[in-house]
Specification:
two-stranded antiparallel sheet; 47% helix; binds magnesium ion
Amino acid sequence: MKKKITFFVCLMGIALLFPVCKPPMQTAIIQKSPTVSPILYSTLYQQYAAEYRALCFQAYNIADFRLNEATRRASARPMAIVLDIDETILDNIPYEAEAIKGNFGYPEGWAEWMEQANAEPLAGAVDFLNRAKGLGVECFYVSNRKEIFKEATIQNLNEKGFPFADEAHVILRSSSNEKQTRRNEIAKKYDIIMLIGDNLGDFDGIFEEVSAKERMDAVNSNSRFFGSHWIVLPNAVYGNWVDVLPGYNSKLKEPELSDSLKQHLKGFRK
Ligand SMILES: [Mg+2]
């Protein structure tokens, strides 16, 4: 028995000494960034977090409140609501999920997803827009989906119960990504009472083609419009906010992309 204890104590001693002798390579491997998609958690958030669904309801509940307010006052022109489509009224996160699982990126697989025309509505969107229609307010869908997907988009919107899902009200991207020109055309005939989107470019041209800091400054100086004339849906998976992130470079692959982005995290230690 005594022999066994002595042997065990020796083993413990060796074990305690061992970390000193560990090859430095092992530490380096552990510290290396894991090769996971940077959008894994945000994709899961939008598919599984009840908070995400609650935020969608919240956005459309506020929109409904503003709709009631707007339709109580008189307007010389017919009233309209202008909305984005993707991650504003339709959920495209299954495409992002498929891209993570298959290790591919946009535009691969996008046409296949569009042609299925089976994206689900975001929580609260269909009821809200049908209420708007019932109050005599038209809805225009201004999206940067390509024209070639117009038929599939109209079919998707129709089958999910959205009003005004037709040629005249679904306005897709023909040449430029900017949406202000298309909104200006609508504003010539309609009183636009509300804009709804998940990307700041869905609200005003001042947010297009500008840096992360300029976007933030523009949000600060227009804070009064959020929740009144502009209704924002959350989207942590993609958007122009990603393109302007410091350290972001679409040509980088993992883990280099995550390493580049990490350089710009704002911690608290000097
Ligand atoms: Mg969108």
